[in-house]
Amino acid sequence: MTKWAEKTFKTRADLMVRIMNLRWPHTERIVQGMLDSLKTYGKDSGKVMDVCCGNGRVSTHFALKGFTATGIDYSPAFIEDAKIKAEEHHVADKVDFIQGDVRDLDALLGDRVFDVVVNAWTSIGYTTWDDDAAVFRQARTHAMDDAVLFIVDTMHQGRASMNPRQMNYVDLGDMLMLETSNYDMLSSRIHTVWRFYRKSGDHLLYEDECEYDIRVYSLSELASLLHESGWHVESYYGSIVARQPMSPHTGMNIVAKAIK
User: Most buried of 29, 49, 68, 191 (most Cβ within 10 A)?
Assistant: First the structure.
């Protein structure tokens, strides 16, 4: 992994967990959107592979709906937090979490086979096209012939180019996080820096910062990558919840089927 990934996902993963925790309240609706799609394929139970699972919000919510799930993530801190949250939600017997690089899915998963594969919250593009293709190819190897793949809540080129330079802040209670993001249209990569400041009376004290540098795909590019990896895109949306059309103002949500 890159130097920035080592710090973001390992050295200061405690800071990133705080950001991921903000996503938990929205996850039930996202998972329900995927469940609604799965019903059209006759699936209302099964085994879920959660690729780049973070601290387990997708796996846990699938388990709450009767599925079993296996989450894989590079960050030891994310995995430990995922296990704690599974216990808190009383689904620890329905989920398991594996720490490791998703580029090594074959070695990490052994002979496990899944009915559903999920990749959520722009968890692709960390390195190269070939690496991403290899991840989804290995996911296909561990998927049933009628498996369904979801890529949900993901950035795409159209949206990134609408506002290539952004600055936002998030109040984390005892801390403030300032986010700056720059999208390079030539390389189609977004470089994001999260700077964390601890509140001290009327002052903000610099705590640390984490980075994020990823390739952003267009819909057609990602569809091509998936096809060469053994998946056929069947539908795409701006929201997996509302199934609204995808546009430069929305995220990218893809539903794909395994190619037999």
Answer: 49
Cα 149 from Cα 259, distance rounded (Å) = 11
pLDDT at residue 1 tops 80: no
- The pLDDT tens digits of the residues spanning 139-184 come to 999 999 999 999 999 999 999 999 999 999 999 999 999 999 999 9
Confidence of residue 4 (pLDDT cuts 50, 70, 90): very high
DSSP 26: H
Are 58 and 171 within one domain?
no
Whole-structure pTM value: 0.97
How far is 68 from 31, CA to CA, in rounded Å? 13
Helical spans, DSSP H, in the chain: 3-6, 13-21, 24-39, 57-64, 76-88, 105-109, 129-141, 157-162, 219-228
Query: How does residue 2 score in pLDDT terms, banded at 50, 70 and 90?
Result: confident
The number of residues in the chain equals 260
CATH number, domain containing residue 181: 3.10.450.630
Residue 17 and residue 67 in one domain: yes
205 and 146 within one domain? no
- Domain enclosing residue 192, as ranges: 158-215
DSSP state string for 59-117: HHHHHHTT-EEEEEES-HHHHHHHHHHHHHTT-TTTEEEEES-GGGHHHHHTT--EEEE
Residues 194, 82, 49: CA angle, nearest 5 degrees = 100
